[in-house]
Design goal:
alpha/beta; binds nicotinamide-adenine-dinucleotide; 2 domains; 14 helices; seven-stranded mixed sheet; Aldehyde Dehydrogenase, Chain A, domain 1; 24 strands; Aldehyde Dehydrogenase, Chain A, domain 2; six-stranded mixed sheet; 479 residues
Length: 479
């Protein structure tokens, strides 16, 4: 049994959850503790008690701890990647890549602890000096989704600690294995007891307790829009700071002048890799008339060559869907798209087993053509390997269609026109804009986040993370 880390001790939960491998549902990865409300409150109290001392720790202390954590993650990339692929279902190369990213994030924020700075200004009043400094905000509650089981926890935990905050971390129920391994590494890094706490358990119990507790100064949340709205309502009611990263319906425009190979690679990569379970996945392809048929033919050819299999098997391109309810949602949206007039041109078939007879949640990637902008498949996030195609007359219409969405996370274009690329970078209504690169797949040292219904609050990652994890103080001194 894998336990929760509360106030520096490994503690049993009130119940247990079973972690199942989606590539082979006979494979029980482990049993993990599930905390209840009282245990969550104990973790919050421990973090609250640890804050005064930790908030005054030196940048050198914080650098050393975060750098140690980053080094261990990087050294154990194969083992951590194997756990990630086994519990979440992304392929081994993708999983190891995510682990490396997490290690690099800890290294980056180790440096940020040293680089934290402020401003010294002259006052408008004679003889007075003004200093602007940043201070930690207190205890932060970190709530994460299942699709990036180590990178998203890393990009919340590392800046929280780097800037001197204490943490209560609640991972997603489906992926406790990666969260537990990360907590184990943190528990041996030299952090004082209570500074970092792992509390696995249900969102409605552990998550909700974090949202409501006045000792939690801020919540950083990544997950679905529905849960994000609950976070916003609870935090607003008690005036706590919060940050939300939620869904996407990310468009990728393919113009007549695109390099066909580049366009197809970007579309297949960001539409289907990681089983399409990425908030930045290109799920809406907007293709101009002159290239439409050639592009679709090349997509289908590439899709037919993809190997859908056990996430940990060498040569697998696409692993399984994460669980039965996500699989049901993917299939439901394929049905809705067809009922509304879309054409399922390729894939979309659930496979009860892989070629070796392993029971799992396998789904062949689906391409749905001839869709119209108002269809549900073009408005709502599916969160699976399901991509729809909309025809556009020209660049102007394509841009308008791309922007016509309640979401605004990542937006892409494939073109060889400098004029259109430049115009698109300025006019795409999204937090991240991609020219001839996939909409999914971002650097770890620059801001991440979206606009409209995709995000709320300051950006995550890079030095912009300080906006959320610190509060500004302005000090006036009469000389
Ligand atoms: P989810 O909203 O179901 O769960 C996210 C987390 O919230 C989990 O840890 C869950 O246990 C917790 N939770 C559930 N109910 C809660 C409550 N009442 N109070 C507090 N916490 C609660 O999302 P998911 O299914 O785990 O993840 C998929 C979603 O995440 C997709 O919509 C995807 O787009 C989004 N996502 C967004 C980004 C981004 O940065 N924009 C990145 C990855 C995933």
């Amino acid at each position: 049994m894998f336990k929760n880390l509360i106030n520096g001790e490994w503690l049993d939960g009130a119940s247990v959850s079973r972690n199942i491998n989606p590539s082979d549902t006979r494979d029980l990865i482990g049993e993990y503790a599930q905390a209840n409300r009282a245990q969550t409150e104990t973790a919050i109290a421990a973090a609250h008690a640890a804050f005064p001392a930790w908030s005054l720790s030196t940048p050198q202390q914080r650098f050393d701890i975060l750098d140690t954590v980053g080094s261990e993650i990087l050294a154990r990339r194969a083992e951590l990647g194997d756990m990630l692929a086994r519990e979440e279902g992304k392929t081994l190369p993708e999983a190891v890549g995510e682990v490396v990213r997490a290690g690099n994030i800890f290294k980056f924020f180790a440096g940020e602890a040293l680089r934290q700075s402020g401003d010294v200004l002259g006052s408008v009043r004679p003889g007075v000096g003004v200093e602007v400094t940043r201070e930690p905000i207190g205890v932060v509650g970190l709530i994460t989704p299942w699709n990036f089981p180590i990178a998203i926890p890393a990009w919340k935990i590392a800046p929280a600690l780097a800037y001197g905050n204490c943490v209560v971390f609640k991972p997603a129920d489906l992926v406790p294995g990666s969260a537990w391994l990360l907590a184990d590494i943190l528990s041996r890094s030299g952090l004082p007891a209570g500074v970092f706490n792992l509390v696995m358990g249900r969102g409605s119990e552990v998550g909700q307790t974090l949202l409501n507790d006045p000792r939690i100064a801020a919540i950083s949340f990544t997950g679905s829009v529905g849960t994000g709205q609950k976070v916003a309502a609870a935090c607003t009611a008690r005036m706590a700071k919060f940050q939300l990263e939620m869904g996407g319906k990310n468009p990728m425009i393919v113009l007549d002048d695109a390099d066909l190979g580049v366009a197809v690679n970007c579309a297949v990569q960001s539409g289907f890799f990681s089983t399409g379970q990425r908030c930045t996945a290109s799920s809406r392809l907007i293709v101009t008339e002159g290239i439409h048929d050639r592009f679709i033919a090349a997509m289908v050819e590439k899709m037919k060559a993809l190997k859908i299999d056990d996430a940990r098997k060498a040569g697998t391109d696409i692993g399984p869907v994460v669980d039965p309810s996500q699989l049901a949602q993917d299939l439901e949206y394929i049905g809705i798209a067809q009922a509304e007039g879309g054409r399922l041109l390729q894939g979309g078939e659930a496979l009860a087993t892989n070629a070796d007879g392993q029971p799992g949640y396998f789904l062949t990637p689906a391409l749905i053509t001839e869709t119209l902008p108002a269809m549900r498949i073009n408005r709502e996030e599916v969160f699976g390997p399901v991509v729809s195609v909309i025809r556009a007359k020209n660049y102007d219409e394509a841009l308008a269609l791309a922007n016509d969405s309640p979401f605004g996370l990542s937006s892409g274009i494939a073109t060889t026109s400098l004029k259109h690329a430049t115009h698109f970078k300025r006019h795409a209504q999204a937090g991240m804009v991609m020219v001839n690169v996939p909409t999914a797949g971002v650097d770890y040292h620059v801001p991440f986040g979206g606009r409209k219904g995709s995000s709320y609050g300051p950006r995550e990652q890079g030095r912009y993370a300080a906006e959320f994890y610190t509060t500004v103080k302005t000090a006036y001194t009469l000389a």
